[in-house]
């Protein structure tokens, strides 16, 4: 078995350490620790039969979440100045990536060669002057399994503190789950317009047996989700499970409502799932799934969300559930965000209201399936800026049902507008 180093880089904290915390004094107990490092290696199997690109996604997620975690554990991103203190200078952690040659993780674990485990570590037991406080090596096996080797200065962390750090890093990675929804491919953005009359017809079709008339946003979201699933089925030859997420504005869902002048990202993610094995959902049912998942984010939910540690736990649990389904093999994801009823067409600087409000073309090799819904100027219509894989987009554009209700990139001079969302 050979372990080949691929890259070495520094991961710095996402936020700088305040000046008054730059000098971290080691207590007497820290100074009495004889060993430089207390190494640990954690092995993870390739449970979802992920390919090499999925491993690259995991690496990106680990790096981003490590950067965020180091902002909380700022001495770990510093430099050992002497036997008494650490300079919290934000030099960062040393992050090494490696490939394991001629060995599968399962084969290695059958009868582990204890002497070989050191190959999964980023440094030796004895610290060299060039070593960082925190040193990490992620090694990829040929089967897609990975190991994470950690060497952090024993002067700062004992076993319990190391566990706390690792669990915090894992929590940040879980909350950074959006990285797992980003895909590789040729992504293109198209602008589609639904006029007021088309949306009213879709609302009638979506009302179904429940008798509940959906909103514009629920209707168009459910319709695009349905048509995207048709494109996915056409591309792969079978219907796959899918995950729909929708960003929800918390301001008016709080009780009492947040001030309209509140700034920051006061949004949360609602999610709905489609399971091929257990469900056969038509258009009305998909719209109803959108409505139900968004309606669950109500005043009670927002109150819990604001409840300190309990709120954080609830956020983490919600995201873990989304990640647990969304990261499974063969699950397609489509995300929605609505700019409707936000008043962008009311922005008047003294020379009249805007003639058009637009998003941008997000075409490129990396992106996620995303739909941005925007009010038109008048008439109860809506624009949908849809970003999909190029091949899937072509199938969506050729869908006759989609063509019957959506127009492709018509002139903003002739288009649509506000209504009740």
UniProtKB/TrEMBL annotation:
<keyword id="KW-0012">Acyltransferase</keyword>
<protein>
    <submittedName>
        <fullName>Vinorine synthase</fullName>
    </submittedName>
</protein>
<dbReference type="GO" id="GO:0016746">
    <property type="term" value="F:acyltransferase activity"/>
</dbReference>
<keyword id="KW-0808">Transferase</keyword>
<comment type="similarity">
    <text>Belongs to the plant acyltransferase family.</text>
</comment>
<dbReference type="Pfam" id="PF02458">
    <property type="entry name" value="Transferase"/>
</dbReference>
<dbReference type="InterPro" id="IPR023213">
    <property type="entry name" value="CAT-like_dom_sf"/>
</dbReference>
């Amino acid at each position: 078995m050979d372990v080949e180093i691929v890259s070495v880089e520094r991961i710095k904290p996402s936020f700088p350490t305040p000046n008054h915390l730059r000098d971290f004094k080691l207590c007497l107990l820290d100074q009495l620790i004889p060993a430089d490092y207390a190494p640990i290696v954690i092995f993870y199997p390739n449970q979802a039969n992920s390919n090499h690109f999925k491993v690259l996604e995991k690496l990106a997620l680990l790096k981003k979440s490590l950067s965020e975690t180091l902002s909380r554990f700022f001495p770990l991103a510093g430099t050992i100045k002497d036997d008494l203190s650490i300079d919290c200078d934000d030099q960062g952690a040393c992050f090494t990536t490696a490939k394991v040659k001629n060995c599968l993780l399962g084969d290695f674990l059958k009868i582990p060669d204890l002497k070989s485990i050191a190959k999964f570590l980023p440094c030796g037991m004895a610290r060299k002057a060039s070593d960082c406080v925190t040193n990490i090596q992620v090694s990829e096996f040929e089967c897609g399994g990975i190991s994470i080797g950690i060497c952090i200065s024993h002067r700062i962390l004992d076993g319990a503190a190391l566990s706390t750090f690792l669990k915090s890093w894992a929590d940040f990675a879980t909350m950074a789950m959006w990285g797992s929804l980003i895909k590789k491919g040729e992504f293109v953005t198209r602008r589609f317009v639904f006029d007021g009359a088309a949306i009213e017809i879709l609302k009638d079709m979506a009302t179904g047996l429940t008798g509940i008339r959906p909103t514009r946003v629920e209707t168009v979201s459910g319709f695009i989700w349905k048509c995207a699933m048709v494109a996915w089925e056409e591309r792969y030859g079978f219907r796959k499970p899918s995950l729909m997420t929708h960003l929800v504005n918390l301001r008016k869902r709080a009780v009492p409502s947040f001030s309209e002048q509140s700034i920051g990202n006061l949004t949360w993610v609602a999610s709905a799932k489609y399971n091929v094995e257990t469900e056969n959902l038509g258009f009305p049912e998909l719209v109803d799934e959108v409505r139900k998942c968004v309606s669950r984010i109500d005043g009670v939910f927002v109150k819990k969300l604001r409840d300190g540690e309990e709120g954080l736990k609830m956020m983490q649990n919600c995201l873990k559930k989304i990640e647990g389904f969304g990261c499974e093999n063969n699950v397609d994801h489509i995300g929605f965000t609505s700019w409707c009823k936000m008043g962008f067409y009311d922005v008047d600087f003294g020379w009249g209201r805007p003639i058009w409000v637009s998003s941008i073309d997000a075409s490129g090799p990396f992106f996620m399936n995303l739909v941005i819904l925007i009010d038109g100027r008048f008439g109860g219509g809506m624009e949908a800026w849809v970003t999909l894989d190029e091949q899937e987009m072509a199938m969506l554009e050729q869908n006759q049902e989609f063509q019957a209700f959506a127009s492709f990139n018509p002139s903003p001079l002739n288009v649509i507008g506000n209504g009740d969302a």
